[in-house]
Amino acid sequence: MVVSVLVVAGVEGVAVNISEYMLSDHFRLRELVPRLPYGNLTTTLTQLEVIRHNLGGKPIMVHSGYRSPEHNREVNGARTSQHLYGLAVDISVKGKTSFWLAGKLKAMQDDGLLIPGGLGTYQRHVHIDFRGKIVRWSG
After folding, report:
1. Exposure check for the chain: N or C terminus, fewer CB within 10 A?
2. 3-138 fold
3. 87 alpha carbon, distance to own chain's centre
4. CA–CA gap between residue 28 and residue 130 (Å, rounded)
5. Cβ-count burial 81-103 (b if 16+ within 10 Å, e if not)
6. Region of 57 on the Ramachandran plot (φ > 0 left; ψ -120 to 50 alpha; else beta)
């Protein structure tokens, strides 16, 4: 596994080249699952660390991350969902409403702490993605 230290928006953490993750003594993740958007997943993980740091270390529950096209169809995801590219997560914070979390995420976007992207507020979770432009909605 390739590991390096990274500092993003004042958050120090560990960056992992996910594709090089060793599943066993002899096989890497990319050998068994070669078509995942590994670079995008690394971006999303980095953004999740920034979010957690800016929420004071509160644990984040991820309800949905990368979706294969088949899984995206099963959950009635949007045809052009950022989940398909590994650039989206549906998240919540225990004990906090989705409206509270969406407000915090909007402030982080507005302050330039996060890569611009989509922010969708739902009853039980918030969708956030890192598509490169601000888009907001509620579901």
Report:
1. C
2. Muramoyl-pentapeptide Carboxypeptidase; domain 2 (3.30.1380)
3. 6
4. 27
5. bbbbbbbbbbbbbeeeebeebbe
6. left
> How many Å apart are CA 123 and CA 38, to the nearest integer?
30
Going from N- to C-terminal start, the domains of the chain cover: 3-138
The per-residue pLDDT for 2 is 37
Whole-angstrom Cα distance, residue 74 to residue 96? 28
Highest-pLDDT range among 11-15, 30-34, 44-48 = 44-48
Residue 11: the pLDDT is: 52
Strands, sheet with 88-92, edge to edge from the N-terminal-most edge strand: 61-64, 88-92, 126-129, 118-121, 135-138
